[in-house]
Amino acid sequence: MPLKQPDLKFLELLIRQAGSVTLNFFQKNFTIQEKPNNQGIVTEADFNSEKLIKNHIHEHFPHHDILAEESGLSHYVDNPQKDRQPLWIIDPLDGTTNFSKGNPYYCISIAYGVLDAQRFDAQLGAVYQPTTQSLFIAEKDKGAYLNGKQIMVSQLKNFHSASIVTGFSSNKGSELKSLTDTIAAIQDKSLGLRINGAAALDLAHTACGIFQGFYEKPLAPWDTAAGALLIKEAKGKVTNFAGNSFCPLSDKGIIATNSFLYDELFDILNKFY
Protein backbone atom coordinates (compact mmCIF):
# COMPACT_ATOMS: atom_id res chain seq x y z
CA MET A 1 0.00 0.00 0.00
CA PRO A 2 1.44 3.43 -0.94
CA LEU A 3 2.63 5.61 1.93
CA LYS A 4 2.22 9.38 2.11
CA GLN A 5 5.84 10.31 2.75
CA PRO A 6 9.16 8.50 3.29
CA ASP A 7 10.46 8.63 6.86
CA LEU A 8 13.37 7.29 8.89
CA LYS A 9 11.43 4.21 9.94
CA PHE A 10 10.79 3.21 6.33
CA LEU A 11 14.40 3.95 5.36
CA GLU A 12 15.86 1.94 8.25
CA LEU A 13 13.71 -1.10 7.52
CA LEU A 14 14.53 -0.90 3.82
CA ILE A 15 18.29 -0.62 4.19
CA ARG A 16 18.46 -3.37 6.82
CA GLN A 17 16.53 -5.70 4.51
CA ALA A 18 18.96 -4.93 1.70
CA GLY A 19 21.83 -5.65 4.08
CA SER A 20 20.36 -9.05 4.87
CA VAL A 21 20.25 -9.81 1.15
CA THR A 22 23.97 -9.11 0.80
CA LEU A 23 24.82 -11.21 3.86
CA ASN A 24 23.15 -14.20 2.20
CA PHE A 25 25.95 -14.05 -0.38
CA PHE A 26 28.86 -12.79 1.72
CA GLN A 27 31.86 -15.14 1.83
CA LYS A 28 29.95 -17.69 -0.26
CA ASN A 29 29.93 -18.67 -3.93
CA PHE A 30 28.19 -16.17 -6.22
CA THR A 31 28.30 -14.93 -9.78
CA ILE A 32 30.68 -12.07 -10.63
CA GLN A 33 30.57 -10.06 -13.86
CA GLU A 34 32.99 -7.48 -15.21
CA LYS A 35 31.51 -4.09 -16.07
CA PRO A 36 32.22 -2.51 -19.48
CA ASN A 37 35.21 -0.20 -20.00
CA ASN A 38 37.16 -1.61 -17.06
CA GLN A 39 34.76 -0.02 -14.55
CA GLY A 40 35.02 -2.78 -11.97
CA ILE A 41 32.81 -5.74 -11.16
CA VAL A 42 29.22 -6.45 -10.18
CA THR A 43 27.89 -9.47 -8.29
CA GLU A 44 24.62 -11.31 -7.72
CA ALA A 45 24.42 -9.54 -4.38
CA ASP A 46 24.49 -6.10 -6.05
CA PHE A 47 21.62 -7.03 -8.36
CA ASN A 48 19.51 -8.70 -5.68
CA SER A 49 19.98 -5.86 -3.20
CA GLU A 50 19.05 -3.27 -5.82
CA LYS A 51 15.98 -5.25 -6.90
CA LEU A 52 14.68 -5.43 -3.33
CA ILE A 53 15.25 -1.72 -2.70
CA LYS A 54 13.62 -0.59 -5.94
CA ASN A 55 10.63 -2.91 -5.54
CA HIS A 56 9.91 -1.65 -2.03
CA ILE A 57 10.21 1.99 -3.03
CA HIS A 58 8.02 1.56 -6.10
CA GLU A 59 5.42 -0.33 -4.07
CA HIS A 60 5.04 2.45 -1.51
CA PHE A 61 5.97 5.50 -3.62
CA PRO A 62 5.01 4.64 -7.21
CA HIS A 63 5.53 8.19 -8.52
CA HIS A 64 9.08 8.60 -7.20
CA ASP A 65 12.05 8.43 -9.54
CA ILE A 66 14.94 6.12 -8.65
CA LEU A 67 18.60 6.51 -9.65
CA ALA A 68 20.48 3.28 -8.91
CA GLU A 69 24.00 2.16 -9.72
CA GLU A 70 23.20 -0.99 -11.67
CA SER A 71 20.02 0.03 -13.51
CA GLY A 72 20.40 3.79 -13.87
CA LEU A 73 17.40 6.13 -13.77
CA SER A 74 13.90 4.68 -13.46
CA HIS A 75 11.49 7.46 -14.41
CA TYR A 76 7.90 6.98 -13.26
CA VAL A 77 6.24 10.36 -13.70
CA ASP A 78 6.11 12.90 -16.53
CA ASN A 79 7.40 16.12 -14.99
CA PRO A 80 9.65 17.87 -17.55
CA GLN A 81 10.54 20.74 -15.21
CA LYS A 82 11.54 18.34 -12.42
CA ASP A 83 10.52 20.92 -9.81
CA ARG A 84 10.41 19.20 -6.42
CA GLN A 85 10.30 15.79 -8.09
CA PRO A 86 11.00 13.07 -5.49
CA LEU A 87 14.17 11.10 -6.20
CA TRP A 88 15.91 8.17 -4.53
CA ILE A 89 19.64 7.64 -5.11
CA ILE A 90 20.81 4.10 -4.38
CA ASP A 91 24.04 2.17 -4.14
CA PRO A 92 22.90 -1.39 -3.43
CA LEU A 93 26.42 -2.50 -2.50
CA ASP A 94 29.26 -0.02 -2.21
CA GLY A 95 32.63 -1.74 -1.99
CA THR A 96 31.86 -4.59 -4.37
CA THR A 97 35.52 -5.53 -4.82
CA ASN A 98 35.92 -5.81 -1.04
CA PHE A 99 32.72 -7.86 -0.85
CA SER A 100 33.88 -10.22 -3.60
CA LYS A 101 37.08 -10.97 -1.65
CA GLY A 102 35.33 -11.57 1.67
CA ASN A 103 36.37 -8.18 3.07
CA PRO A 104 33.64 -6.90 5.44
CA TYR A 105 34.28 -3.24 4.54
CA TYR A 106 31.25 -2.65 2.33
CA CYS A 107 27.85 -1.01 2.75
CA ILE A 108 24.49 -0.09 1.29
CA SER A 109 23.76 3.60 0.68
CA ILE A 110 20.29 5.11 0.16
CA ALA A 111 19.32 8.78 -0.08
CA TYR A 112 15.91 10.32 -0.60
CA GLY A 113 15.31 13.90 -1.64
CA VAL A 114 13.73 16.19 -4.20
CA LEU A 115 15.04 17.87 -7.30
CA ASP A 116 14.96 21.62 -6.75
CA ALA A 117 16.18 23.75 -9.67
CA GLN A 118 18.08 20.70 -10.96
CA ARG A 119 19.88 20.25 -7.63
CA PHE A 120 19.33 17.34 -5.26
CA ASP A 121 17.90 18.51 -1.95
CA ALA A 122 18.50 15.52 0.33
CA GLN A 123 15.84 14.88 2.96
CA LEU A 124 16.86 11.44 4.26
CA GLY A 125 20.05 9.43 4.02
CA ALA A 126 21.39 6.16 5.37
CA VAL A 127 24.55 4.09 5.10
CA TYR A 128 24.48 0.56 6.52
CA GLN A 129 27.39 -1.83 7.06
CA PRO A 130 25.76 -5.27 7.35
CA THR A 131 28.82 -7.08 8.71
CA THR A 132 28.91 -4.86 11.81
CA GLN A 133 25.21 -3.90 11.86
CA SER A 134 26.29 -0.25 11.88
CA LEU A 135 23.45 2.01 10.74
CA PHE A 136 24.30 5.63 9.99
CA ILE A 137 21.13 7.62 9.34
CA ALA A 138 20.14 11.26 9.03
CA GLU A 139 17.18 13.50 8.33
CA LYS A 140 17.62 17.05 7.07
CA ASP A 141 17.93 19.55 9.94
CA LYS A 142 17.49 16.81 12.56
CA GLY A 143 21.01 15.48 13.07
CA ALA A 144 22.91 12.31 12.20
CA TYR A 145 22.90 9.09 14.20
CA LEU A 146 24.82 5.83 14.49
CA ASN A 147 22.67 3.02 15.90
CA GLY A 148 20.48 5.57 17.68
CA LYS A 149 23.28 7.70 19.13
CA GLN A 150 23.83 11.19 17.75
CA ILE A 151 27.18 11.68 16.02
CA MET A 152 29.38 14.62 15.09
CA VAL A 153 32.44 15.04 12.94
CA SER A 154 35.80 15.18 14.69
CA GLN A 155 36.65 18.49 16.32
CA LEU A 156 40.38 18.06 15.70
CA LYS A 157 42.09 21.32 14.75
CA ASN A 158 45.61 20.12 13.95
CA PHE A 159 45.98 18.72 10.42
CA HIS A 160 49.23 17.01 11.41
CA SER A 161 47.22 14.75 13.75
CA ALA A 162 44.43 14.03 11.25
CA SER A 163 43.67 10.67 9.66
CA ILE A 164 42.41 11.32 6.12
CA VAL A 165 40.66 8.77 3.91
CA THR A 166 40.27 8.60 0.14
CA GLY A 167 39.84 6.17 -2.73
CA PHE A 168 40.71 5.79 -6.38
CA SER A 169 37.74 3.86 -7.83
CA SER A 170 37.87 4.36 -11.60
CA ASN A 171 41.01 6.50 -11.79
CA LYS A 172 43.04 5.29 -14.74
CA GLY A 173 46.11 6.39 -16.67
CA SER A 174 46.83 10.11 -16.47
CA GLU A 175 44.20 10.59 -13.73
CA LEU A 176 46.42 8.61 -11.40
CA LYS A 177 49.05 11.37 -11.32
CA SER A 178 46.77 13.82 -9.49
CA LEU A 179 45.82 11.02 -7.13
CA THR A 180 49.37 9.94 -6.31
CA ASP A 181 50.67 13.51 -5.99
CA THR A 182 47.87 14.34 -3.58
CA ILE A 183 48.43 11.19 -1.55
CA ALA A 184 52.10 12.06 -1.14
CA ALA A 185 51.29 15.62 -0.03
CA ILE A 186 48.64 14.58 2.48
CA GLN A 187 50.73 11.71 3.81
CA ASP A 188 53.53 14.20 4.45
CA LYS A 189 51.34 16.71 6.31
CA SER A 190 48.90 14.48 8.21
CA LEU A 191 49.02 11.55 10.60
CA GLY A 192 48.32 9.29 7.66
CA LEU A 193 46.06 8.52 4.73
CA ARG A 194 43.84 5.46 4.37
CA ILE A 195 42.24 3.81 1.33
CA ASN A 196 39.44 1.37 2.17
CA GLY A 197 37.46 0.86 -1.04
CA ALA A 198 33.94 2.04 -0.10
CA ALA A 199 33.36 5.78 -0.41
CA ALA A 200 29.90 5.84 1.19
CA LEU A 201 31.20 4.05 4.27
CA ASP A 202 34.24 6.32 4.40
CA LEU A 203 31.90 9.32 4.46
CA ALA A 204 29.87 7.74 7.26
CA HIS A 205 33.02 7.11 9.27
CA THR A 206 34.06 10.71 8.71
CA ALA A 207 30.65 11.84 9.96
CA CYS A 208 31.18 10.02 13.26
CA GLY A 209 34.78 11.16 13.72
CA ILE A 210 36.68 7.94 12.97
CA PHE A 211 38.32 9.77 10.08
CA GLN A 212 38.93 13.50 10.18
CA GLY A 213 38.52 14.10 6.47
CA PHE A 214 37.51 12.47 3.20
CA TYR A 215 38.04 13.40 -0.43
CA GLU A 216 37.73 11.59 -3.73
CA LYS A 217 37.32 12.29 -7.42
CA PRO A 218 35.66 11.02 -9.53
CA LEU A 219 32.63 9.55 -7.80
CA ALA A 220 29.04 8.84 -8.85
CA PRO A 221 25.86 10.23 -7.22
CA TRP A 222 25.10 6.93 -5.46
CA ASP A 223 28.54 7.01 -3.80
CA THR A 224 27.98 10.38 -2.13
CA ALA A 225 24.28 11.32 -1.83
CA ALA A 226 23.62 9.75 1.58
CA GLY A 227 27.11 10.35 2.95
CA ALA A 228 27.04 14.06 2.13
CA LEU A 229 23.84 14.46 4.16
CA LEU A 230 25.42 12.56 7.06
CA ILE A 231 28.38 14.96 7.05
CA LYS A 232 26.15 18.04 7.00
CA GLU A 233 23.92 16.75 9.79
CA ALA A 234 27.00 15.79 11.84
CA LYS A 235 28.06 19.48 11.76
CA GLY A 236 30.74 18.93 9.14
CA LYS A 237 31.65 20.82 6.00
CA VAL A 238 31.16 19.30 2.55
CA THR A 239 31.97 20.94 -0.80
CA ASN A 240 33.00 20.09 -4.33
CA PHE A 241 36.61 20.46 -5.47
CA ALA A 242 35.99 24.11 -6.38
CA GLY A 243 34.98 24.88 -2.81
CA ASN A 244 31.31 25.35 -3.67
CA SER A 245 28.18 23.71 -2.28
CA PHE A 246 28.22 20.01 -3.13
CA CYS A 247 25.56 18.39 -5.33
CA PRO A 248 25.84 14.63 -5.91
CA LEU A 249 24.12 14.85 -9.31
CA SER A 250 26.53 17.37 -10.83
CA ASP A 251 29.74 17.18 -8.79
CA LYS A 252 32.13 14.28 -9.33
CA GLY A 253 34.52 15.32 -6.57
CA ILE A 254 33.76 15.75 -2.87
CA ILE A 255 35.64 17.16 0.14
CA ALA A 256 34.26 16.39 3.60
CA THR A 257 35.81 17.34 6.93
CA ASN A 258 35.33 19.77 9.81
CA SER A 259 35.54 23.55 9.63
CA PHE A 260 38.98 23.57 11.31
CA LEU A 261 40.75 21.28 8.82
CA TYR A 262 38.89 22.22 5.66
CA ASP A 263 41.12 25.05 4.43
CA GLU A 264 44.33 23.04 4.63
CA LEU A 265 42.79 19.99 2.95
CA PHE A 266 41.27 22.18 0.23
CA ASP A 267 44.58 23.97 -0.40
CA ILE A 268 46.42 20.67 -0.86
CA LEU A 269 43.82 19.34 -3.28
CA ASN A 270 43.71 22.62 -5.18
CA LYS A 271 47.37 22.21 -6.11
CA PHE A 272 46.81 18.96 -7.97
CA TYR A 273 43.23 19.04 -9.29
Automatic annotation (TrEMBL):
One GO process term, biological-process aspect: inositol metabolic process
Cofactor needs: Mg(2+)
Binding site for Mg(2+) 2: 93
EC number(s) recorded for this UniProt protein: 3.1.3.25
Keyword Membrane: no
UniProt KW keywords: Hydrolase, Magnesium, Metal-binding
InterPro entries, sorted: IMPase, Inositol_monoP_metal-BS, Inositol_monophosphatase-like
Residues noted as binding Mg(2+) 1 in the record, renumbered to the chain: 69, 91, 94, 223
Pfam families, sorted: Inositol_P (PF00459)
Catalyzed reactions per annotation: a myo-inositol phosphate + H2O = myo-inositol + phosphate
GO MF annotation terms: inositol monophosphate 1-phosphatase activity; metal ion binding
Gene3D superfamilies per the UniProt record, alphabetical: 3.40.190.80, Fructose-1,6-Bisphosphatase, subunit A, domain 1
Family designation: Belongs to the inositol monophosphatase superfamily.
The protein, known as: Inositol-1-monophosphatase
Organism field: Spirobacillus cienkowskii
Highest classification ranks of the organism: Bacteria, Pseudomonadati, Bdellovibrionota, Oligoflexia, Silvanigrellales
